[in-house]
Specification:
This protein is of the alpha/beta class. 31% of the residues lie in helices and 21% in strands. It is built from eleven helices and 17 strands.
């Protein structure tokens, strides 16, 4: 559970349990890279489910994760989102508080120690075993230490004892957090840490999670699901961490209900400033004008386009061999992926 990273973290958990022979079932809110389905029952004792705080149905406004009653609960982060459902961060925290209380006394809560807000959440009431994981110096039971800037190689520690050195294909600090959290969670289900760490070399990211669209092109095109300033920032930081001298060009569609209403505008401009060029798509159903971003403190690299044709022209006007272009949206972006791929190839 958490605001960001749920699909990747649940995919890693399911894959690690599978690789360690535990035959899990799973329900993942995306297209996992290592399985040919997003859901299956499984033959083992464990079922991995991506726990979403969105409401259950029009007749049941409780967060859907309150129906799951997990034996092991992993929470990666917590921020304001889903402005069409929640009025404030306090409303979301209340749902997560209910979720924590649904874990039985003999269950386990696996929590990100690098997120101070989660410690505050625990302080409000948690009667289960708590296991903490970290990618920093925060007090934790499990720790990942990056061995290179893009986090594709890292050491894993449990109770300060070295478990393994991992090399895997995913990049970025946010994916490092997903990995160490999933290792900790899978261990509670019976997976051997050494085997889980070794299996990560074969893990493949879910579709549209910093997915490379055109691996043969000299201009890298990525498709990403980022639709919140924090996710945008982490995606761009990941691309920045690569050993490449080319530019990073970000293309964003403000499509989520929270973005459509114009929340987080200063944070969004700041996140987009990590790109060399940032292009934002204007839509008629936005309650604000993206042009406002260009007038904010960090908005000097941002341009606004009214159509995908304009976006393709804008990208092609600045892109060069060795550059990285990333599209970010929680929707289809009206087919921009295929349009850009054809032009960049």
């Amino acid at each position: 559970a958490g605001t960001h990273g749920k699909t990747t973290a649940s995919s890693i958990c399911a894959f690690l349990l599978h690789a360690c022979g535990l035959e899990p079932g799973f329900l993942i809110g995306g297209v996992p890279g290592n399985f040919d389905v997003s859901a299956r029952l499984g033959a083992g004792d464990w079922f991995v489910i991506e726990a979403d705080e969105y409401d259950t149905a029009f007749f049941d406004k409780r967060s859907k994760f309150l129906h799951y009653r997990p034996d092991v609960l992993m929470i990666g982060n917590l921020e304001f989102d889903h402005a069409d459902i929640f009025d404030s961060i306090a409303d979301i925290e209340k749902q997560f508080q209910y979720l924590l209380r649904s874990v039985p006394a003999n269950g386990t809560v696996v929590i990100n120690a690098d997120q101070p807000g989660l410690s505050d959440l625990l302080a409000r009431g948690c009667w289960s075993q708590v296991i903490r994981y970290s990618c920093t110096d925060a007090p934790a039971d499990w720790r990942a230490v990056a061995l290179q800037p893009d986090c594709r190689r890292f050491d894993v520690y449990c109770e300060n004892h070295h478990v393994a050195t991992v090399e895997w294909p995913l990049m970025g600090q946010h994916n490092l957090q997903n990995a160490i959290g999933a290792i900790a969670a899978s261990h509670t289900a019976g997976a051997k840490p050494e085997d889980a760490c070794a299996a990560l070399a074969e893990f493949r990211s879910p579709k549209r999670r910093l997915e490379r669209v055109n691996p043969e092109s000299s201009i890298a095109l990525f498709d990403d699901f980022a639709h919140h300033p924090t996710a945008v920032r982490e995606t761009l930081k990941s691309l920045r961490s690569c050993d490449s001298q080319g530019k990073v060009i970000a293309v964003l569609e403000p499509r989520s209900n929270t973005m459509k209403q114009g929340f987080h505008r200063p944070e969004l401009a700041q996140a987009l400033s990590l790109a060399d060029v940032a292009i934002v798509r204007r839509h008629d159903d936005l309650n604000w004008d993206p042009e406002e971003l260009t007038r904010l403190k960090d908005g000097d690299k941002i341009m606004v386009c009214n159509s995908n044709t304009q976006i393709v022209d804008a990208v092609c006007g600045v892109v060069e061999a060795g550059d990285r272009v990333v599209m970010m949206s929680n929707g289809s972006f009206d087919g921009l992926r295929d349009l850009l791929a054809a032009q960049l190839n």
